[in-house]
Amino acid sequence: MNKQLEQEIVTHSTVDEITSRTVDYLKNGFPVHFTGPTGVGKTSIALHVAKKLERPIVVLQGHEEMTNADLLGDFNGYTKKLLVDNYVRSVMKKEETMRENWQEGLLLEAVKNGYTLIYDEFTRSKPETNNLFLSVIEEGVLPLYGSKHKEKWIPVHEDFSIIFTSNPSEYAGVHETQDALLDRMITMELDYMDPEAESAILSQKAEIAEEQAEMIAGFVSNLRDKCLSKSKQGPGIRAALMIATVSKDKEMNISAEDEEFKQLCIDVLLHTVHKGMQYEKKSRSLSLITQEFKKAFGGNNNGK
Ligand SMILES: Nc1ncnc2c1ncn2[C@@H]1O[C@H](COP(=O)(O)OP(=O)(O)OP(=O)(O)O)[C@@H](O)[C@H]1O
């Protein structure tokens, strides 16, 4: 099972509001699309919503090499069956049969059985591959062209729902979304969570005290804001989770006096902050992190 499927979501007001609206839209037959920068919780909320629909969940990960065969299914080799019949001792009968193995595609499976499909990062797949979704959404049928099926199409089950997620088109490896597809879904723009929501997630997921989580979330979000002010991406909740998890595991002091903790923060943040701030010299990014580090954790000795 997908690891994220088993994870418990930490709900906060944004998650609750988005979830309730999305469930309404999906129940009325409209696909929903969460878009936004990396790490804002698109996949987590999509999974949370999907669980509310109480149907089996299928997660499809968009990628450049995705083909119709991946979505609809394909033959993936042969199985050889050898039957040896030695019932009458003097007669040995051997029968060999070959059978093509059919692997059903995830979209076909979901459409046929009325599952909830999460199509994560769907703009990483080529637009021509995603064209299949136009028929699914608009006509309520899944065309089976080029798939060796006897039928030309199958009807979409009435319980089938679909949630798309994507990163903005300026991200590397992301295709522009076709207008025709966008026009048929409700697109909700998700933004970075506020520091309170992030610290609740840190505290629960890394099992650290609330005030420590607040300090780490505030520190990372200040650095992120500095990068965003240059219209660049900054460190997100994943970076904050790394800091929280490793510092807890290594029993570091969440304090400016702990050199090991400071090194951990630099290791996790320097590359992203430097990319975001676009300074010529790395030492400038390092100074920025050190300065924010002192502001966030200086004078504090909150221990473990
Ligand atoms: N509400 C939440 N509760 C618990 N964990 C969360 C929540 N929101 C985000 N996270 C955690 O934060 C990290 C990023 O979340 P998620 O993968 O949902 O973001 P995303 O917007 O889909 O990112 P990407 O665009 O990179 O796929 C994950 O480790 C996830 O488990």
UniProtKB/TrEMBL annotation:
Subcellular localization, as worded in the UniProt entry: Cytoplasm; Gas vesicle
UniProtKB keywords: ATP-binding, Cytoplasm, Gas vesicle, Hydrolase, Nucleotide-binding
Pfam families: AAA_5 (PF07728)
Principal localisation: cytoplasm
UniProt KW Protein biosynthesis keyword: no
Lineage top rank: taxon: Bacteria
Domain AAA+ ATPase: 28-196
SUPFAM superfamilies referenced in this protein's UniProt entry, alphabetically: P-loop containing nucleoside triphosphate hydrolases
Catalytic activity: ATP + H2O = ADP + phosphate + H(+)
PANTHER family xrefs: MAGNESIUM-CHELATASE SUBUNIT CHLD (PTHR42759:SF1), MOXR FAMILY PROTEIN (PTHR42759)
Family statement: Belongs to the CbbQ/NirQ/NorQ/GpvN family.
The protein's name: Gas vesicle protein GvpN
Biological source species: Sutcliffiella tianshenii
Organism lineage string: Bacteria, Bacillati, Bacillota, Bacilli, Bacillales
